[in-house]
Amino acid sequence: MKIYLKTIIAFVLTLLSIAPVAAQDILARQAPIDARMRAVDSVSLKRLLQKESFSNPSAMLYGNWGEHYARNKATVPDSFSIVLSNFCMPTTSHIVTSDYGMRRGKLHKGVDIKVYTGDTIRAAFSGKVRIVRYDEKGFGNYIVIRHHNGLETIYGHMQKSLVDQDDEVRAGTPIGLGGSTGRTADAHLHFETRFCGIAIDPTHLFDFRNQDVTGNTYVFHNDKKSSTALAQARKAKEEQASNTTASSKKQTHYHKVTKGETLSAIAHKHHTTVDNLCRLNRISKTSTLRLGQILKYN
Ligand SMILES: [Zn+2]
Questions:
Q1: Short-list 108, 109, 106, 110, CA closest to 91
Q2: Which of 73, 202, 271, 273 is 20 to 30 A from residue 123's alpha carbon, by CA?
Q3: From ligand 1's centre to the CA of 110, what distance in Å?
Q4: What is the tens place of the pLDDT at every residue in 201-233?
Q5: Cα 125 to ligand 1 centre (Å)
Q6: How far is the centre of ligand 1, averaged over its atoms, from the C-alpha of 191 (Å)?
Q7: 22 CA to centre of ligand 1 in angstroms
């Protein structure tokens, strides 16, 4: 009898220890929200909701929710800071088998990561599944997710999709299984990161070798004149280098554009000049400011 009881206890303990990682994540995320909700009164609740919409800019950036393959007519802002915190690596694989860039005379708009058939592929950030499709001559079973941080991610060549169009996902939600469907011989994940339809080298955002993001944010710059992959890579490097030097001296501050504000009003408010604002945000004096646009002011 005693031995029987011991077996049951051991079994229960084992079950507890293998509680799904995803469930633990949800609990961990839920806890601070509950604490916050309890602590707020109606005024600060309003502020909290404003803050949430501030950290969910995708609705502002994209007018449509079409089925077009990540090529929508969104108005691309001159620059935009994409928040990378609360991420999940799409795969635990460290091996990049093909880089972003020119390949056989065509731009390979993503990276290929070695995965095995059946490996779990996860959503990189929270968001909503925009496209679930099968393209025999292209990416096979592929998914496009629009994230709250403004980014869209594409996952190709999967054996199987585990989500449906319009499904809400969290960072880490299993969305498919690795495979070799479509135009490929070997099992791998074709992974793309796009902002308003423009492809960004995913390794500027994700460090697959170290299974990490490259920073808290990634600053996207829309430079139509030199939109080659190389120019973007150089810019990103310069930006990161200048960020590192600047942050060691002083913190960068941002201003969120409210209704009716002009560049000169914002400059006046933060004791700076219009020229300085234009330089920091790579915009011109005549640029139209969008409601909710984020501007650096120092
Ligand atoms: Zn690829």
A1: 110
A2: 73
A3: 6
A4: 999 999 999 999 999 999 999 876 445 555 666
A5: 20
A6: 7
A7: 28
**Residue 198: φ, ψ to 5°:** -90, 125
- Asked if residue 126 lies in contact with residue 170, where contact means CB atoms within 8 angstroms, the answer is yes
Q: In the numeric block, which tokens belong to residue 180?
A: 């070799």
pTM of the model: 0.58
Which residue shows structure tokens 């880089």? 99
> Which of 102-116, 216-230, 243-257, 278-292 has the least mean pLDDT?
243-257
Residue 173 Cα to ligand 1 midpoint, Å, equals: 22
Given CATH 3.30.110.30, say whether it is the number of domain 250-296. no
Residue ranges covered by each domain of the chain:
2-58, 79-239, 250-296
Tell me if 143 sits within 8 A of 154, measured CB to CB: yes
- The domain made up of 79-239 has a fold known as Glucose Permease (Domain IIA) (2.70.70)
